[in-house]
Amino acid sequence: MKNNQFGRMQLPLATELWELKNIHFLEADVLDTPKAQLIAFLQRAWGPLVTSPAAFDQKLSQLLATPDTTMADFLASAAPLTADIFARLALQLLQFEPETDYDIADPLSAYSTLQLPTFDVETFQTANDVAHAWYQLLSTHTKNGETYLDYLTQTGYFVPFYGQITGPVFFNGKAQAVFNPHETIHEIVYVEAPLDTDHDGKRDLLKVEVSRPKLTNSGYKAPVLYTASPYNQGTNDTFGEKITHSVDVPLTEKAPNQLTAADVQFQSLPPELPPERIPIGETVLATEHFAKEQSYTLNNYFLSRGFAVVYAAGIGTRDSDGLRDTGGPAETLSTVAIIEWLDGQRQAFTNKTDRIAIPAWWTNQHIAMTGRSYLGTLATAAATTGVDGLKTVISEAAISSWYDYYRDNGLVAAPDTFQGEDMDVLAGDVFSRMQDAGDYLGVKKDFEQVLSQLQKDQDRHSGSYTAYWDGRNYLNQVANIKADMILVHGLNDWNVKPRNVYNLWQSLRELPIHKKIILHQGQHIYINNFRSLDFTDMMNLWLSYKLFDLNNGADTLLPDVLIQDNVTAETWHPVADWPAATDQYQTLYLDQGHLTETKHQTPQIQTFNDQLSEATFKRYCDDLAGWHADLFKPNTDENALRDNRLIFKTEPLVHPWAIDGTPEITVDVAVDASVGMLSFQLVDYGDAKRLGAKPTLLAKNVLSGAYDWRTDDLYEFMPETQVTPWKMITKGHVNLQNRTHAYQDEAVVPNTFNQVHVTLQPTFYRLPAGHRLGLVIYATDFETTIRGNQNLTYQINLTESQLNLRLADNHE
């Protein structure tokens, strides 16, 4: 195991002592001797569970002070407290296993191996030395991925604080669980949005679920974590499957055009709105409540730390008004309306009929947005409006342009595992008003019209970038962002592909805001329950600063760019930027199955065909993993794809490479028809026990961050038990009619060569020495593109084709 803590503050001893007093580990000054102080700390730590002297002694007897002395015997002796004794005790308290995680005879060496923060005390001369070491211990992660103080919190350490505090309590720059989560108030209000998307002559009312600390009833003002989740009120899975599109259709020719970027620029029109409702009264008491929401475990963690948590599903969802229109301006306004209510700029009501207004009187008007995927997407969309009150966004696996989610360079390109999904399918899936038959009756025809318009506007026939997609490209409004941004994304996320976060990160570069990015090796996942990274602590540090105005230096303490290693498990690298300004450039040329650093001068043409036998085609449609494996395998008679792609490889690398940013491919290509597409994959060829595609479950229900509260499982990316011969690094696609721009359709003259330049999905990937870098060129991508099984033959002029890479420090 390797511990990586980036959200941990180093503070002066005087501050440590003050904070230990503030959380009652010290009631007054330190005691007279180091051992007496250590006993007092242990009694405090175990107090909720160990309430008699005999039980305390029993617990001490279960711990070792030296390899042959228990803590009970050591504390009763005259022997001095030494660094190795404290280290041995700390490792046991942190739940590390002797002789598995550390050498019981040499505990200090484990601090380096496990990457634990040291307590910097060689000999314990005074009780202050113990207090310093204990402070360091409380802020150090256990083997189960949480600080020791959070572990104690789960055993009930902060329960005596319940009912005695008047506001948040901080330790090491982070809010602590001193609010009783079981007394959280759960209430519902209906925010009036500046929309009438269902055209009923009344502004849309949006259901909002509020969970706030009970202390807000006594004058405490809480900051808010707001998650806009279209899934929060349920989904229509069967309906979504019913309207999913067939992808087994041919690529068809598009009429050439000479469109420019200005021709496809979205022009917004201000909606014609009914007047606002006129309240007939105002109250601070909600009249509707709920038991439990579909929650995000990171939000659960903060509910006991003085934060309020708000969920809203938005227009067209159950108990809200309006119609769903995926990714459009109305969806953004729907999201922002809740922020405006929380910031005191918009009205809400206790229900949808009585017109009794209810303000967000309980908040300090400091708001953050959280969430992954569609949830993080709406957070990004809200930030691009520059709405007041939104202080920061923690956006995970979020879409920055819907075109980059459902399209790629003029091609329909599905998110991974969702072949046939599109904007209309997603709109139908989250239109949860459908689940209340009476409500759906009144809007059914209107929603059918919305779906019909979506199907027309999304234009699956074309796949080109249009004004419709431009209106769903949040990058166009990035300059409006005022909120500080934290972006989190998986480098192996082929649902929301890495281009989405890369383009947003580049666009944020010049804005006068604080921004951070965390890139992990996962797919489309959350990372707040990972053992190797203190993500929850980092976000606690960040949110305590942004929403409580605590001067903890989070802006400078947290790395601007943090990247998880793909070779060594549980390893994270803080780097200056992504991609790095210091990258070296490497050009590789194509040469009859090889990638070389020397360009071949003699013209070389290689060909492949895109058509498979009907039986093979159907087999691959049903076995995407089998198709992907055959794509990388050598050309043998048994490989059905031997004539359907080209593979080029480097020689085994003498030195490791770190591929940074966006690989770029230029090919000179001809096809024997007026249509064609190309797909590309970069591949790591080399036998290795790679990190698993999915994180490994380490322990069930071990994380909660509060006493008797909602739990989460602990995960980590671990090396696979089996050696694998390859791994895809990144990929990309292009319609040959969109070889210049995604919005410009050009003619393809059969058997005529054209230069095509393709930027692949961005990455950061370490390629070890001895491995080979491979480039696979093919056409139909069974996982992503449409699958027409057309008889198209492609020619690649190798002499005029090349791969350009950026190579960074490989972090070895």
Q: Quick summary of this structure?
A:
With 812 residues, the chain is α+β, with helices and mostly antiparallel strands. Helix content is 24%, strand content 23%.
Individual helix count? 21
Mean pLDDT level:
96
> Can you tell me the overall shape?
globular
| Amino- and carboxy-terminal Cα gap | 18 Å
Strand content: 15-25%
Largest sheet: 12 strands, mixed
Subunit arrangement of the protein: single chain
What is the total tally of β strands?
34
**Secondary structural class:** alpha+beta
Question: What is the CA-based Rg, rounded?
Answer: 29 Å
Q: Runs with pLDDT <50, length 5+?
A: none
Percent helix range: 10-25%
Question: Mind explaining what this structure looks like?
Answer:
- There is one protein chain.
- The protein is α+β, with helices and mostly antiparallel strands and 812 residues long.
- The protein contains 21 helices and 34 strands.
- Strand 15 and strand 16 form a beta hairpin.
Topology:
Blueprint: H1 13-22, H2 34-46, H3 53-61, E1 64-66, E2 69-70, H4 71-76, H5 83-93, H6 107-113, H7 127-138, H8 148-154, E3 170-171, E4 174-175, E5 185-192, E6 205-212, E7 222-228, H9 237-242, E8 281-282, E9 288-289, H10 297-303, E10 308-312, H11 329-342, E11 348-349, E12 356-357, E13 363-372, H12 374-383, E14 390-396, H13 403-406, E15 407-408, E16 411-412, H14 423-430, H15 437-458, H16 467-470, E17 484-490, H17 499-508, E18 515-520, H18 535-548, H19 554-557, E19 561-564, E20 572-575, E21 584-591, E22 594-596, E23 605-609, H20 614-622, H21 624-632, E24 646-649, E25 657-661, E26 664-671, E27 677-688, E28 696-703, E29 712-716, E30 724-735, E31 754-759, E32 763-767, E33 772-778, E34 793-807
